[in-house]
Amino acid sequence: DLSRCNGCKACVVSCGIENGTKPDEHRTQVIQTSAEIGNKQYAFNLPIMCNNCEDPSCVSVCPTGATFKREEDGIVVVDSTLCIGCNYCIQACPYSGVRFTNSTTGTVDKCNFCIQRTS
């Protein structure tokens, strides 16, 4: 709910804790910006994460099939055992900042909607 986002980035911190990522590696981000509208300055907070696209370009460019869309719920995930770290999916994603190369595994990492909590 964008109207409730105050830019505190607690979602970013809790995601990192849940998934054990390093402090500078994020599966989600909150972009903070401002704009002048009618001589008034407004601040905006925009949480960014994987949108689990209907037809994800990241899936079609993956040469090993490591990035795929789960049929049961439509979540796009990366199987780190198949990922070769080519970063094609990072380049193909239209939502910059939601994928990164995990410095521990050397493979691509992204938001998986905490499927470990729902599976």
Description:
It contains four helices and six strands. It starts with 9 loop residues before the first helix and ends with a helix. It is α+β, with helices and mostly antiparallel strands. The chain has one domain: Alpha-Beta Plaits.
Distance between the termini: 24 Å
CATH topology: Alpha-Beta Plaits
Q: What average pLDDT do the residues reach?
A: 91
Tell me the structural class.
Answer: alpha+beta
As for the number of domains, it is 1
Number-wise, the strands total: 6
CATH first level: Alpha Beta
- Flag low-confidence runs: none
Shape, per Cα inertia axes: globular
State which percent range the strand residues make up. Answer: 25-35%
Q: If classified by CATH, what would the architecture be?
A: 2-Layer Sandwich
Order of helices and strands: HEEHEEHEEH
Give the number of helices: 4
- In the sheet with the most strands, the strands line up as 1-2
| Share of residues in helices | 10-25%
What's the alpha carbon Rg, rounded to whole Å?
16 Å
The main sheet comes to:
2 strands, antiparallel
Key attributes of the depicted protein:
single chain; 119 residues; alpha+beta; Alpha-Beta Plaits; two-stranded antiparallel sheet; 4 helices; 6 strands; 25% strand; globular
In short:
This protein is of the alpha+beta class and 119 residues long. It contains four helices and six strands.
